[in-house]
Amino acid sequence: MKTIVMTAAAALLAAGAALAQDVIKLRAGGEVKGKITVLNNKNVNVAEAGGKATALKAEEVASVTLGGDTPPSLQKADAAMAEGRVERALNLYPAAIEEIAKEKKRELHKQFVYWNWAAALQQKGSPAEALEMLRKLRAECGADCFLRPLSFDRSLEIARPKGDEMVESVLTEMKGEPDPVGSKAQMEIARMKFSKGDYEAASAIYSKLSAVAGTTYANDARLGYLRCLRLLKKQDELEGQCKQILADRTSNGPSLLQAAGAALAAIQLPKVEKDMAKTRELLMSCIQSIALGPPSGKEEGEDYALALLTAAKCYNILSKTMTKQEAKDEYRNRAIGYLKEVKGAYPKTAMGEQAQKDLIAIGEEKPKDSKDAPNK
pLDDT tens for residues 190-225? Predict the structure, then answer.
């Protein structure tokens, strides 16, 4: 996650007139200086010198530094954190909250005080207290608070090393938020269900999210739904979904196209393997999926591996129809190459084990209990 923090520390005091300005750094590079007039999780508006007004979307903003009326205790607390004096900072943040009201500082400062306070608690090694401070930020700074969406991301970062129970407590609150925050929570819940093998529960969540076209996670949810259908062996529904996806290649991303192409070919090959023309068509579909490349994620890797396994089966089937030995060998060698790629890239997985079985079936390797050494 790209962290957005307020850096109104003691060093800014030396900046003179610049201190009176708010500084908004942009993700695309550059910055805007002036007086923030609107700061929420949708928009950031700035009144610049010379009467110029700049309107930004919140997602365009990389960081915000509030200047001019920074609570003194916040400056001291942030300076203490910079020096590694966590306990001193923790003693100063409560005073900073009080100063906002007593000294009539802008309410915008409050969310940044709580944000930095939570970071100090996290650094101290108090994750439960850090999470509670981020909840306080959300409770006191409102539903449209600039840091509200980011506070959920930070909460998940804090919770994940501590186990599912703490993560689930964050997601329970998070899933009630508007899109994209609420959808992200639902996706996280579905992934947790998936990783635990509860494919029915995961598929129900993925199906619901994918049904709302145009939402942030609709495509990712549909991809998750395909994987659930495959693992649940709901072949008819999976085949129908894959056909819909492949019929609209311009609207769907490469990961979804790869998963659909691989799954559809794997479903249809047993039905058409005696029809060489259709087997070739399925081989072409697999090759298109393979051409999209191996992704980095484990789940995405299964789609790529499935395309390789199915393409290998196609090549092996077609090799037996070749009249020339040279052609037979070429097709067989391509099958072997794909199978060895799966075996090497996905060891100790169902896909890797299937590749091993297929290599044995076509005579490239010997069973483990065979007295003969395997071919290499």
Answer: 999 999 999 999 999 999 999 987 778 999 999 999
Q: 3-class DSSP state for residue 33?
A: strand
Asked whether the beta carbons of 98 and 117 are under 8 A apart, the reply is no
Enter the tokens of residue 96: 């900073």
* C-alpha span between 245 and 253 (Å, rounded): 10
Give pLDDT, residue 6: 46
Helices (H) and strands (E) in the chain, counts: 15, 5
Structure tokens at 2: 């790209």
Q: Which amino acid is at 65?
A: T
Tell how far CA 82 is from the center of its chain. 31
Q: What is the pLDDT of residues 14-26, one digit of tens each?
A: 344 445 799 999 9
**pTM of this prediction exceeds 0.85:** no
8 Å CB contact between 68 and 12: no
Task: For the sheet with 61-65, list strands across it.
Answer: 53-57, 43-47, 31-39, 22-26, 61-65
86 contacts 96 by C-beta, under 8 angstroms = no
- The DSSP line for 50-112 is GG-EEEEEGGGEEEEE--SS--HHHHHHHHHHHTT-HHHHHHHHHHHHHHHHHTT--THHHHH
